[in-house]
Amino acid sequence: QVQLVESGGGLVGPGGSLRLSCTFSRSIFSIYHMGWYRQAPGNQRTLVARITTGGSTNYADSVKGRFTISRDNGKNTVYLQMNSLKPEDTAVYYCNVAAFSGPYWGQGTQVTVSS
Length: 115
Prior knowledge:
Elements: E1 4-7, E2 10-12, E3 18-24, E4 31-39, E5 46-52, E6 57-59, E7 67-72, E8 77-82, E9 91-99, E10 102-105, E11 109-113
Parallel strand pairs: 2-11
Antiparallel strand pairs: 1-3, 3-8, 4-5, 4-9, 5-6, 7-8, 9-10, 9-11
């Protein structure tokens, strides 16, 4: 059973930064892409950023230029660097891995942006 463990969430003021990490409990074969999603209360879960095994990335328009997704294959970890955070970035952030063996999800980490 593969587990995805997220960390790095918390409370930060507007304009601040956070770095989220997601580590897989073991290697996952045939990964298509890895990504971060978020869900605010009353809203659907939406894609924030995604990175393919080839390194191609795409971002939601609302976070372009502020967030950066990266990965460390040797550590089975994917990161989300979030800069210039805004109150509307407040949500639970979920790590996702899409692979031949199925989608995997983390348990979520809360990010709150507030003064």
